[in-house]
Here is the input.
Amino acid sequence: MRDIHALLKQRHRLGPLEPRKGGLAFVTVPRENLRGLLLELRDTHGFTHLVLLTAVDWMEDGLFQLTYMLNNRGRDLTLGIRVMIDREEAQGDTIHDMWPTAATYQRELKEMFGIDFPGSPRLDEEFILEGWTDLPPYRRDFDSLAYSQQTYAERPGRVTHDPREYMKSKLYPDGV
Amino acid sequence: MKDVDDKFLKNLDRTVPLREELRPRKVTTPDGQEIEIEPLKDYFCEAAPKVHAKSYFPIVEDFYNWARANSLWILGFGTGCGAIEMRPLMTPRFDAYRYGIQWRPTPRQSNLLMISGYLSVKTLKRAIRAYEQMQGPKYVVGLGSCTINGGMYWDSYNTIKRLDQYLPVDLYIAGCMPRPEALLAGFMELKKLIKAGKCEGANKYAENFATYKANQKSVIKDWDMPDYNW
Amino acid sequence: MFSFKPDRSQYPAPGPDGKLQIDLETGKYLKLWQGPNHPGITGNMSVELTVCGDEVVEGKTHVGYLHRGFEKLMERRTFIQVFPIVCRVCVPEPDFNEYCYAAAVEDLAGIEAPEYAQWMRTLILEMGRFNSYMMFLGGIGGALGLGITGQWMTYVRDLMLDRFEELTGARIYHMFILPGGVRGHLPEGFEGRMEEVLDTAERYLADIDRVMFSNSVFKTRTKGVGVIDPALFEPYGVTGPNARAGGVAKDLRKDSPYLVYDQLDFEVATATDSDIFARATVRRADVQTSIDLIRQILKKMPKTGPAMAKIPNVLHWKIPRGETYIKGECSRGEYGYYLVTDGTGYPRRINVRGPSYTHAMALLEHLIPGTNISDVAALMVSLHTYPPEIER
Amino acid sequence: MGLREVLTPFTVWKHVFDDPVTIKQPIGRPAAERYRGFHQNDLDTCIGCGTCEAICQNGAIDMVAVAGYDPEKGNSGLKPQIDYGRCCWCALCVDVCMTGSLTMSNEYTWVDTDPDAFRFVPGLEEPWKDDEEGYEREGKRVLSGIERIHMEEMEPEARIGNFDEIVAGYSRAEAILEADRCVECGLCVATCPAHMSIPDYIAAVRDQDYDRGLQLLYETNPFSEVCGRVCTHKCEGSCAALHEGDPIAIRWLKRHIIDEVPFDRRIELIGQPAEPTGRKVAIIGAGPAGLTAAFDLARAGHGVVVYEALAHAGGMMRYGIPEYRLPYDALDRDIGVIEAMGVEIRTNCRVGRDVTMDELRRDHDAVVLTIGLHMGRSTRVPGTEGAGVEKAVDLLRRITDGEKVPLAEQIVVIGGGNVAMDIARSMARLQKAEFGKVGITLTALEDIDHFLADPEEVVESREEGVKIFDARGPQEVMRDAEGKVTGLRTWRVKSIFDAEGRFAPAYDQSDERVHAGSMVIEAIGQAADTSLLGAALTEALEWNRGRIKIDTAFRTSEPWLFAAGDAVKGPDVISAVADGHRVARTVMEKLAAREVAQ
Here is the structure.
């Protein structure tokens, strides 16, 4: 993995390699360099298998991280390629022409994170959700429990007690 | 477990427009005629369900109930995980058929809808349609925690918590998921209830139709079907 | 052979680009929904078919009927609280979720599961794989109207569920593989009872060979149908038995050995035709591999030893910032968990990579056009997809 | 397609004559022995710590009050109620249960038409309550640590020759590991006399937020240096973790926080007291109760003067507890913080000698009496009068003052409390320095299992060479013809209390023993020296069995006089601190209500 990283580092402006155990490593790449890097990895270095494409919401930093996980089966190497994109106008570059299956991932990202991939097929069709009117649910600012409480009725009549407060109320109600 | 974000408010402004092909419009038929269609009205009967009156003679009603109890035909619609435990019942090991229970592929042939666990909103819509298409008298059994109070998806944005808000439930079976043996016990209990004339779910649905519809529509935002289809 | 040759003479003329111009209002095409409530669908999903005559000209997979928002729910739960819900991601083979999640947490937290736990996990995964293949072999027969395979295989699977029950304490959702190890040890006399099950299974599988794989009807309906061109394997992310049926011996148990697979002796089954029949035979051979592996594991695994590594107090377990991807070969292909942590007590993001995701969406949609309506069910089953892991 | 392929499938018809695999009676078929079925709970073992509720990712568990189970020490009396509309049978609640009371049966059939019925308190009346089979966790709990992190201590050989502090204190890494074991149930809070927010400050250690930790400590206790070392730590006796393993080292963690925050930073973190109110309070006795009250009153902006008869402030914390347990500089830091709040401490100022009660009453809006117990009690057995018999508190005070105390090569100590251990171990150190060897015999009425001293004190005493004879009742101090002490004669104790629970030791006279020694030290209890009150006030006050009578709010029968601490209640530092808070609160209420106006 280090050899490949050394080879591609300059050309694709790669960040430092972050190896983990078992042939797995992560690297960050600027968005402009992503396509070239993916093409070279796929065509020259045997990373032919797109394992997954997903996003991580770093809401505090105003960023989405797109993770492209590529695998080289022959050498048992897996490379996670990180692309940081702006969270406000979230947009990525479609790779469905390289891996047709990426279109599905991009549809999911569009629906669940609101990340746009211009040119990706059937991007605006409903994928998993149906009649969804709220924030894309995988975004960190979408609170699942709050939404659930405001939408779906719950069976009433449950009460609980905090042992500490309960003991206080029973054993020393005046607080001392 | 993370605390709920008190500041989060769900979006109430946005509505989902009706899909193109369901809107009333003019179309040209293959033979060149121009006609107006309104898909949601044209293809369905909109009459609300009616309460099914009991027979005047109790002995006749008892006979009906006996017959109903001994032919529980289950709609083979696996709405959630619990469906996987129904499969063994269809095989010789547990052999539910000996109790007069069998699975049918379409709602028209079934009188028992098993809601096998959680219902996502998307499936709830189909479950409602399936239920309404079933012939009365019909029964609903809720499997597992999810149908009772949300189960482990109690904080999910996409699953309902109380099944009885949306469909009339006759019986609940505890478990996550209930074993085949527990399901059989549930069926036996259901038979007893039917024989005793206590399974009035379909009539309850007809009586409280407006409430059920309101509840259903509060969670299904793209309501693109008629109010009642049978 | 009687292969499907549609009569396209009555079809509307294709557009200038040679593609079909599907205009429903011409009356030539028909939308046909297969699912979600349909006997010819695997689980709760649907395929929207556009047919012309009995040829399917377009197919779109619709999922989301089982969507519970797992990846969101996991972000709300502490690291131990995620453990009970991961197995629900895939109902027929839940154990892979438990393993991948546990291994991912262990990787980021710097914990090593004890040796006994590693063996136990391998055993559980193989038992789960066996069960999953039982579902497949029952399903593929059922999809072609051969009901008896479903009856037999469900029975054998049930026997294995009994073993699961006595080992893990549950039938379907075992919740046995905790981050840090496994929950317990083998019960007394487990090996003997397992051997009985495996014997029974082998007897039934021999019958399956006779009734299904040697059956002229089955052969005729599956050979040469639903062929996946091996050139599509990489672009469409095809892994597991689907790829092995096309001659590519992709198997993570060999390619990237995890747990104790490097200490086990087995061969990867492959076939060449890449059609429905080949995919079924590969899985049939894989069942045998699993049976052998279970026997080997029970023989080789340590008799005692700690089942759990020392883990921090789970009530406030924090894991330093990092990301990892843990993969394994499930019965359908590459199953993986991508875990990102941010130093708090909650995962920042978990992404589940299920093989069904690529197989049932992009691949199926690519394979469907040009098939006969009656083959769609078998084609879908032959890809061996489980809807809950697609939408999670 | 050959004929063979058409015919082969028919060969399976041979199974027509096989026995059916159908289960004859599937309903109620017993599940596997380990099956995770419906919950069971042994209500008598359950302590209601709520850990099951905390770990349940489904929010399925509520802690509810159940008739017949009331809160007590280390037991909230609450019981888990499980909602089977939520449960997923993952059994994490069983695995995490601190006592092992929560288990699962292998029962699995429950059908009902009422969805609200699936909510129950396991252990009350469910049919599977007493089922034997079902899921129980294998071995002890693994989801939270069982073993306490070892605390570095000096070896007996190294510590016996000097008065250096024995316990080293946790390092940061050790403290984090120990704090990690806490499950934050909060059962300890009720047990702590001062109700310190223990789970919160342990969480602060875990988060390495010592500033927050220190603020939490000072909310309830200005003597964290002291209590972090010598507290009787009753909290640890009610810790949920002790049911299957060691309790959390709450005391050491408290000490760890205070160790990590430098002195100046402490004052900064606590912040300045409130604006002066112009009210003045006099406190008699600079012990833990008095100084705590002084701290609280000063924080509220009242002027506080503490009158201390001895040369240094600290009371029994300084003059009763030996230096190897509580170094004086640690105590000085705690007192320093209190002084920094504007408390004036007048040492060497004995009320009744240097200033009178009447003067105090005249000059202040209220007077708080926290004089402690500084007079040693005597067994009054024959021979205790005269040289060679000493009282433990006197000796401890003199050791602290640096005086030369009487010493002998063989000493007999009477008493089984912490004071007895303190004097025995202090004398042992002096003996080691003087004679090079230890010769201490300790006799106590109680048997070793019911010693009043902390168990670790007993262990450490023995390590240091103190010979302990339990269940011995002193009968006579033996003296030779010249009147020199030669030993102590004791009988074996049969019982200490009579049937009504009154103190009335019964002896087995046949089991007599003489413990040789040329010096006897009595450490059987102390009394308050109330002579400072003066005759008139003594007459005016109401008394209760030799102690000044106080009400629940620490008011004496005189409206301007309050009393707290060991002198009226007891028995340890943390109780005195708690009393200090309470009396300060009462005084402030009174000041606010202007009821104490002259």
About this structure: Chain A touches chain C at residues 20-24, 26, 48-52, 54-57, 67, 69, 73, 76, 78, 80, 98-101, 103-104, 126-130, 137-138, 140, 142, 144-145 (CB under 8 Å). The first strand of chain A starts at residue 18 and ends at 20. Residues 31-44 of chain A form the longest helix (14 residues).
